[in-house]
């Protein structure tokens, strides 16, 4: 099973060019990847949260470098409870590292491949096309079936809907007519997850990530 972060990253990639399709990547995708990792840790019982705070329950190492990257920051904070908004802000400087580790895991699983190129025969560039569309097709089908129906979402799918909505990626999955038809349904499901609500606030509010202080 793919993690939330892996599913979001695959949805954010153009499956042919291997380039990110999200505009304002530094703000949107990076914030959502951090939220995706926190959501994964929550399902593992490593953290918990309410509407305002995140509670750190267990920071022992896992078998995932992506999860351990975030757990290390939580452990170093020396706290057992922090403001959820403050936690997201403090983790944002790690978002590029998280992205690279997600890429590494997807390549190791044989889902993505790295292609090295040169732009104008000089400047190096990389892209990550999808090797087999099975995984991404499965994710898209699950999301389509859920938001276009009246089914009660299971907890993991509700979180994924919230993350995808925060990225604005439903326009890549649904036709414009379908999107208009189920906007209310998507917003309703997205309200189930408090971490994603804070991510949306953060995307709107954060102007400069370079001077975010450590936990206080």
Q: Quick one: biggest sheet? A: 3 strands, antiparallel
Number of strands: 5
* General shape: globular
CATH architecture assignment of the domain at 4-131 and 194-205: Orthogonal Bundle
The CATH topology of the domain at 4-131 and 194-205: yeast vps74-n-term truncation variant fold
CATH class of the domain at 4-131 and 194-205: Mainly Alpha
Query: What distance separates the N and C termini?
Result: 36 Å
The spatial strand order of the largest sheet comes to: 1-2-3
Task: Let me know the average pLDDT.
Answer: 83
Tally of separate helices? 10
Task: Give the helix level as a range of percent.
Answer: 40-55%
Q: What is the radius of gyration computed over CA atoms, rounded to a whole number of angstroms?
A: 17 Å
The string of secondary-structure elements, in order, is: HHEEHEHHEEHHHHH
Q: What is the H level of CATH, i.e. the homologous superfamily of the domain at 4-131 and 194-205?
A: yeast vps74-n-term truncation variant domain like
Task: Specify the structural class.
Answer: mainly alpha
Q: What amount of the residues lies in strands?
A: 5-15%
Low-pLDDT stretches: 207-212
């Amino acid at each position: 099973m793919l993690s939330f972060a892996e599913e979001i990253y695959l949805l954010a990639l153009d499956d042919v060019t291997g380039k990110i399709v999200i505009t304002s990547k530094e703000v949107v995708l990076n914030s959502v990847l951090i939220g995706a990792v926190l959501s994964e840790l929550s399902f593992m019982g490593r953290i918990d949260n309410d509407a305002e705070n995140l509670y750190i329950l267990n920071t022992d190492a896992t078998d995932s470098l992506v999860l351990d990257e975030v757990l290390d920051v939580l452990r170093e904070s020396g706290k057992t409870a922090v403001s959820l908004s403050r936690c997201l802000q403090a983790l944002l400087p790690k978002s590029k590292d998280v992205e690279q580790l997600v890429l590494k895991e997807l390549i190791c699983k044989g889902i993505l491949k790295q292609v090295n190129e040169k732009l104008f025969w000089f400047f190096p560039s990389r892209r990550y096309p999808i090797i087999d569309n099975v995984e991404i097709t499965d994710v898209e089908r699950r999301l389509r079936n859920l938001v276009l129906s009246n089914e009660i979402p299971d907890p993991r799918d509700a979180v994924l809907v919230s993350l995808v909505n925060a990225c604005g990626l439903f326009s890549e999955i649904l036709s414009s007519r379908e999107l208009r038809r189920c906007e209310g349904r998507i917003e309703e499901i997205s309200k189930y997850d408090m971490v994603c609500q804070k991510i949306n606030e953060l995307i709107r509010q954060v102007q400069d990530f370079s001077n975010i202080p450590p936990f206080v």
